[in-house]
Amino acid sequence: MSRFSAVVLFLSFGIVVQLTHGIEVNVMQNGELCLYANLMLNFSVSYQVDETQFQTVTFSLPDDAISDESKCEETSSTLKLKFGDGHFWSVNFTLNENSYQADVITFSYNLNDLNTFPNSASNEILTVTQKPQMSEIDLNTCYFCKSQDVVQAGETTMTLWDVLIQAFITKGTPSQDMTLCAADSSTTTTTTTTATTTTTLATTTNATTTTTTTAPPVTNTTTTTAPPTTNTTTTAPPVTNTTTTTAPPVTNTTTTTAPPVTNTTTTAPPATNTTTTAPPTTTSPTPTLPPPSTGKYNLTTPNNTVCLLASFALRISYTQDGKKEELNLDPSVTKASGLCGESSSELELVSDQMTLTMAFTNDTKKFRLNSLNVTLKTSSGVFADGNANLSLWEAAIGSSYMCNREQNFNITSLLSLHTSNLQVQPFGVKKDSFSTAEECQGDAESFLVPIAVGVALLILIVVVVVAYFIGRRRNMATGYESF
C-alpha cells in the first residue's frame, strides 16, 4: 500500500475524484474519538426457499444501522453495525507495533427475517467470516480505498467501496494522512500541484453516532450498486530518432617472429587432503505447554441479570507457515464481552494474544455452538481462522452443556480447539447459576463404569452366599443318612 497526504488530489482525465460519503460512524471512548469509518456496503445472499430451489437477494447496509456495540481497546478494536431483524456486520482490527490491520470480517444474518429473505425455508441465524484485504495500515493514518472490494464467504457476497477507516486514533483527532489500498495504487496517479481538496473528519461528543447519505435498503432484487469508475490517462514519453553511421573496417597487419620453444618439466609437490568434521547439530525440542487454567465468564443484561455463563479450560492448536503451534487461553488476562438474544448469543474473549468469538444459536428446543472465530498474535504475525457451520456443545434450552474430560475439535484444516472442565449455558440462565447439566458421552460413561462394577460385585457376592448355603445343606443331609 502507498501512503499519501489527504490534501493530495486524485486526477483522472484532469477531473478531481472526491469521496462519496456512505454510512459514517464515530466510535467514542472516554469522550474521545477512537475509531472512524465511512463506507459503502452491499450484500448479496443466496438462501433456500424449498427442497430444490434457491433464491438470491441483494440489499445495501441500511441508514438505520446501529453501532452501539463497537468498541476500542488497547490492541484491538471492533466496528460492529447492527441492522434489520437480527443482522450484523463487523470488522475486527488489531495493532501490531507501527501498523494495524483488519483481521476478520463477520456477517451474521437471520433467515427468519421474511422481509429481507422472503419465502425462506430456514429460520436459522447464519454467520460467515472472511479475512479482508486491509493489511499493513500505517499507524496514525486512515485506510482509503475507492475501488471495489468484493468479499465472498459461504453463500454471501459483500461489496465494499469508498472505504475510509481509521482505528486506534490517538488524542481523539483523526489523521489527514492515508494508506492507500493496492487497487487504488495501481489505477490512480497523484499530483501535488493545481487545486487542493481536504477531507475533515469531525469529532462528536456522542458515545457512538451513525449518519448516512445512502439510499434506503433495496430488498428482493439482484441489482448491486456499482462503485464509481476511475479512468486513468497515461502520456507516452517523446520518441527520439537516432541515426548511426558505420565506419569502414580498418585492417591492421602485424608480423611477429616467435622465439625458440623451450620445454620445461616441473614436478608438483604431493597433494595433501584435509577432512574437517562439522560439529553435530543440536535441535532444541519444542517446549510442552502446561495444562490450561479453567476460566469462568459471564454476560449480563442492562439490569445486571446474568444471561450467559461459561466455564472451561481452553487451548488452541494452529498451523502457520507450515508449522504447528499451540497457545493456551489465560483467564487472568482475558476480558469477556458479547450479547444475549432470544435465538442467538455471542461470547467474545479477548486476551493479550488471543481473540476468541463464539456464536450460539437455538431452534427453541436445543442450543449449540454454531460459529467460532479465532485471531492470534504470533511471532510470525497474525493468524485468523474460523468456521461458521459448526454444531457443537448441544443441549436442551433451559439446561447447560457439561463435559469435564478433554475434548478435541478440528475447526478447520489449520485450527483445532481443545477444552476440558467445560460447562456452558448461553440461554435461559436462572438465578445467575448453571441449570441442570446434560453431560457429554464420555462423562456419562465414566459414571456407568463404577455402577456396573458395583452391580457385578453384588451379584457375585449373592452367588457365593447362595452356593455356600446350598453346599452346607447337602453336607447336613449326607450326615443324617450316615446315621
TrEMBL record:
Disulfide bonds: C145-C181, C403-C440
Residue ranges annotated for the Lysosome-associated membrane glycoprotein 2-like transmembrane domain, each copy included: 449-480
Signal peptide location: 1-22
Residue stretches making up the Lysosome-associated membrane glycoprotein 2-like luminal domain: 26-168, 292-430
Domain of life: Eukaryota
Main location: membrane
Swiss-Prot/TrEMBL GO biological process terms: establishment of protein localization to organelle
Annotated stretches, region: Disordered: 207-298
Compartments where located: Cell membrane; Endosome membrane; Lysosome membrane
Membrane-related topology note: Single-pass type I membrane protein
Record carries keyword Glycoprotein: yes
Comp. bias intervals (Low complexity): 207-286
Keywords: Cell membrane, Disulfide bond, Endosome, Glycoprotein, Lysosome, Membrane, Signal, Transmembrane, Transmembrane helix
GO cellular component terms, A-Z: late endosome membrane; lysosomal membrane; plasma membrane
Record has Heme as a keyword: no
Transmembrane region(s): 447-470
PROSITE patterns per UniProt: LAMP_3
Listed PANTHER family: LYSOSOME-ASSOCIATED MEMBRANE GLYCOPROTEIN, LYSOSOME-ASSOCIATED MEMBRANE GLYCOPROTEIN 2
Record-stated family: Belongs to the LAMP family.
Protein name (record): Lysosome-associated membrane glycoprotein 2
Organism: Oryzias melastigma (Marine medaka)
